[in-house]
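Researcher: Go.
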Amino acid sequence: MVEYEIYAWEPTVSPHKLELFRALRDSGRVSRITYIAQADLSAERKQQGWSRGDIEDLNVCLAPSTSVIDDIVAGSSENAIHIFSGVHWSPVLSAGLKAVVKRNRRFGLMREPRASEGAKGLGRLVHSWLTEGMYRRRADFVLAIGRNGPRWFRRAGYAARKIFPFAYFLPAPQTEQIGQEREIPLVVYIGRLDLEKGVSLWLDALPLTKRKAKFAIAGAGPLAPLVQTRSTETSPPLAVLGPLPMAEVGGLLASADIVCAPSLSTNDGWCAVVSEALMAGSAVITTCKVGASICLEQDDRLGQLVPTDAAQLALAIDKLLEGDLLTHAMRGWRSSWASTRLTSSAGADTLINILDHIYGGTRRPEPFYA
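Model: Structure:
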């Protein structure tokens, strides 16, 4: 059985991808993983409560020079596979891509779609057409993240046979993070507090709900003052929790019955909190702008998709509150569904099946959410 040698190229260290590469390393199908990033976790992400933990167990190279990048590629075997999380704006990505093309190494892309709304979205599409021709021709695969990923890359000219649906695959939740039923359900928002994430839409929806519930919001961002002001004005009451460390997010999700991710932009390429919420057993409400909303189309018991409209969001919250989808049994079912599809081990299996198809001629695998 073929063992793969993988080089992962990132603009910054990503907590949402580290576990995938650890799972690949431990899969028995990968002989070596080298993780190359332009920079460590950003200060902005740390302010939002993100942390990456130790990375000493991975073969990590941070901020390499162009000469070091060339040495890394030259030292990789001809059968190695280089996976790039993007092609734009990062010296590590651009230099690494030039080096693998120059030395004729195998490579593919693991990318979210670029935001596609309006004139700026059209400009991004034109930019991709003008600047990615070499990568369209030479890349062996595109791991297109989220609902909108495959469509974006088809529009940007990538061959459909090279495009595979993909996700951010996260660690499996601890058993104690699967919550219990509560007398008064809890509805939460967790994430960046900015316009694109739909915070204003969520705040506008709360006064329109009619069923009894508690509401809480956690996160940091430019709309934090608005959230604080609205929390003192709105009814029902809104608990403002501020930014939560990543280690505490699981506890909040375990106590949440419904998690809302009402993004207004396809810039929300995946939305990891949707995966985390489903693995914790919470029902989820999202808009179709959210990459992870592709999961909700697979079964109505996972949650609801809504348009970017406050009244519709309020109706969706009420519908879940008055239905039978918030029982302990349903929480367990959602957690089981997500744990077999969205965990890092499931992601490793998905990627290996894709590589076996591309390089070993096996049958094209089903999408990870199937």
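Model: Residues 175-339 form a domain with the Rossmann fold fold (CATH 3.40.50.2000).
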